[in-house]
Amino acid sequence: MQITDFDYELPGELIAQAPLEERDASRMLVLDRREQEWVDSSFKEFPRYLRTNDVVVVNNSRVIPARLIGQREGSGGQVEIFLVREIKSDVWEALVRPGARLKKNSRAIFGEGKLIAEMLDEPGAELRRVRFHCEGSFDETLAEIGSTPLPPYIKRGDDASDRDRYQTVYAHMSGSVAAPTAGLHFTQPLLDELASRGIERTTLTLHVGYGTFKPVRVDRVEDHEVDPERYVVSREAADALTRAKRDRRRIVAVGTTTTRALESLIVVEGIVRPGEGETRLFIRPGHRFELVSGLVTNFHLPKSSLLILAAAFAGREEILAVYRDAVQRRYRFYSYGDAMLIV
Question: I want to staple 199 with a disulfide (CB 3.0 to 4.6 A). Which of 47, 77, 194, 289 is the partner?
Fold first, then answer.
């Protein structure tokens, strides 16, 4: 497969720059894979497209304020550090700008000295190793002075509202540097409605890394590698999934992150084993889905690994046809955009 097989034209004005006032006011395109038909709907109607006893699986990872803006020690020049992955206590892999000017052992100051970043390696690699120094808790300091890490295609600075709206209402476990955006459409009343209809909900954790924005830089799709992401699927969640498989109930994953975590689990004779670790699973056409039988997702970037995952689930030609139609119908795209339900 060539990466050009997963391209489409998207006018820039359809890239959502801010969330709607109400989370569940988003439009929702519903694709029936078997019939190869789709209809326009709204996310408030999501529960009526499910069956009693379906299992909805959500990712409860919480976005950390991973973007830091400060000054170089000495010169006072502006520095931006984007946290990517914690290596050990107080040491992170990070994107550093301007990276070339920050040599090994140089330091940057944030929050008027509340947080100091020390470069542990020389410039050159895309990701630098950075040690942080602060008085008290690093997490509390980061929460005070860090900014919401909005995606690069949102062409504005973050504001106070993003701290709430770039999180799901069920976010609990801190660790993501990007939101599991399919879950942004849910409200507590909608979750309550799912429960009242007899629709089970279970939770896992996959911490979304910066690799979710990583472009596919190879011509052959099969040559692409996704960055590892940490996940935890508890015994309770695994048991719920096992019961769903035994009873032949649908498992509806909320988001590509949830899908990757679910499809990384080991299933032996119908029994789903809990899991914890890092997944490098790259889901592409030809993947045999073991657990996921329904998918809630947003509209993804052209030639991205997330679009390829959606194509693996629904079919490449079908997904591209849906995307072309969504462009014509003026759907809102990407993280703060509209939703798609694939069943």
Answer: 194
